[in-house]
Amino acid sequence: MMADSIEAAINRLNELPVFFVAGLPRSGTTWLQQMLNAHPQVLCLGESHFMNDIVPDIYTVLMDYTRKRISGKKTWAPGVQGPRPEHMGPIFHAAFAALAAANLGDKDVSKLVVIGEKNPDNLFHAQRVWRVYPDARMIHIIRDPRDGAVSGYARFRQRLADDLKRPDYVKAYATDWMARILAVRKHSLGRAYLEIRYEDLHADTMARATNLFRFIGVDPVETEIQAAIDAASFERLSGGRRRGEQDPDSHYRRGEVGGWRDEMTAEEIEIAERAAAPLMRQLGYQVLSDGAQGETPASQQVAE
């Protein structure tokens, strides 16, 4: 792409509304990103870590510059004021548009109506998302914490401490699950925020996907939505495996709902439910353990 074409693409992308996909690790964020990005009117980036890498780095550079200008360092004549936080929004927006332009692939920029990014970390930085983009839409995909914990331990085992046993990981995951959902709900008041359960997206993919595309501002044309669903099917993403055919080394491990039932011990089930039972019940997840009342939530970030 020529320089003038790149500039035109960035300018066009900078005009479009923005959305972000969030959710705890192993909650279906990648599946959702692939589905949304498969639509011709949507560009949904993978894990760019825009909010937790690029935004803080740009902020640091600009604030360092501002402090230098205040100090008058190496300045021998009337100088300038550096940008303060309230001036930085357009700079962040231009950076996100440039990032999107670098990842257009074969997308026709003239057909796009919205751009977005998926990252589990967006859940941890919801306040920052809405400071940078006050009108941003956020989709929060939520999965049964028992399934999420089992999948997370299998996927991230090599990154975890050698002495971290699965029951300990289950407790940490379920505790964080409850704390993070409550926190993002608090930050989302008055914002464009939509929760969707992973299980519901599985059960009625067409209806739920239609609602998601409508939420981010895309006309729900059935043929285009079905094509996006097909492009993000488990069979296609996993390289041909059917749901339930497990590959512990694949990002797309199993592709089923409720796998925890035949993988978790009774002890692990009770641990998860004691940590998150109140919110599990509220969200419609069956709690099996007798007397699982839940504990006071505490933020304890799970390895990704």
Describe this structure in words.
By secondary structure, the chain is of the alpha/beta class. It has a single domain (3-146, 193-262), classed as P-loop containing nucleotide triphosphate hydrolases (Rossmann fold), CATH 3.40.50.300. It is 49% helix and 9% strand. Strands 2-3-1-4-5 form a five-stranded parallel beta sheet. Helix 1 packs across helix 4, helix 8 (166-187) runs parallel beside helix 13 (266-282) and helix 10 crosses helix 11 (222-231). The longest helix is centred in the N-terminal third of the chain and has 22 residues, at 50-71. It is globular, with a radius of gyration of 21 Å.
Primary descriptors:
globular, 5-stranded parallel sheet, 9% strand, Rossmann fold, 304 residues, 5 strands, 49% helix, disordered C terminus, alpha/beta
Number of domains: 1
Distance between the termini: 35 Å
Secondary structure: helix percent: 40-55%
Here the CATH topology equals Rossmann fold
Gross morphology is globular
| H/E element sequence | HEHEHHEHHEHHEHHHHH
Category from helices, strands and their pairing: alpha/beta
Largest sheet, in brief, is: 5 strands, parallel
Mean pLDDT: 90
Q: Beta fraction of the residues?
A: 5-15%
> How many β-strand runs?
5
Adjacency order of strands in the biggest sheet: 2-3-1-4-5
Task: Report the CATH C-level class.
Answer: Alpha Beta
CATH architectural arrangement: 3-Layer(aba) Sandwich
Low-confidence stretches: 294-304
CATH superfamily: P-loop containing nucleotide triphosphate hydrolases
Number of helices: 13
Tell me the radius of gyration: 21 Å
